TrEMBL record:
Pfam families: Fer2. Signal peptide: none annotated. PROSITE patterns: 2FE2S_FER_2, ADX. Its cofactor is [2Fe-2S] cluster. One of its GO terms (molecular function) is electron transfer activity. This is 2Fe-2S ferredoxin-type domain-containing protein. The lineage of its organism: Bacteria, Bacillati, Actinomycetota, Actinomycetes, Pseudonocardiales.
Length: 174
């Protein structure tokens, strides 16, 4: 694969060298910090231009640190916490991390309501307005609709004002 091609996150050093890191490898695993150190040491040692390597490291860490945190609360007190890249939907973050109870059958097109969640109070004001399609689909959810807290996870983009959000997952989606 070409440097910087799809599915790759390049760290650019001097002499036009590029160290390729598989996309998602360091972003979705909560323990990515421990795996990051040997990769970065190898990268820095391969590049004689320490300043350039350090600049690349700063950019990479800025991206890693910008991750959004989503807490999915389930019946019985169980909670699943995932980190996701800004711009990804809450539904995709759940599906990519195997969160129980979020299906996303339509792939994020607001056509199935299998990503229905109840947004917790402190985060409601940070949500974007609801579209007509989302409003209609929320009338078709298996779990009862809460007029204030019910939202489709596929319509909630993480990042910006939503760098952290907590939701309750209904007991059933289908």
């Amino acid at each position: 694969m070409a440097p910087g091609g799809r599915g790759q996150c390049p760290l650019v050093g001097d002499r036009d060298e590029v160290l390729q890191l598989p996309e998602g490898e360091l972003r979705t695993d909560p323990g990515h910090g421990a795996r990051l150190i040997p990769v970065l040491l190898k990268f820095v040692s391969r590049n004689s231009g320490f300043t350039e390597a350090l600049a690349s490291l700063r950019l990479f860490m800025k991206e890693v640190l910008a991750m959004s945190k989503v807490t999915f609360h389930h019946d019985g007190g169980l909670a699943e916490v995932v980190e996701a890249e800004p711009g990804i939907s809450l539904m995709r973050a759940a599906v990519h991390n195997g969160v129980r109870g979020i299906i996303g059958e339509c792939g994020g097109q607001a056509m199935c309501a299998t990503c229905h969640v109840y947004v917790r109070e402190p985060h409601l004001d940070a949500l974007p307005g609801m579209s007509e399609d989302e409003d209609e689909m929320l009338d078709c959810t298996v779990a009862p609709r809460d007029d204030r807290r019910s939202r489709l996870g596929c319509q909630i983009a993480l990042g910006g004002d939503l760098d952290e959000i907590e939701v309750d997952v209904p007991a059933g989606q289908v």
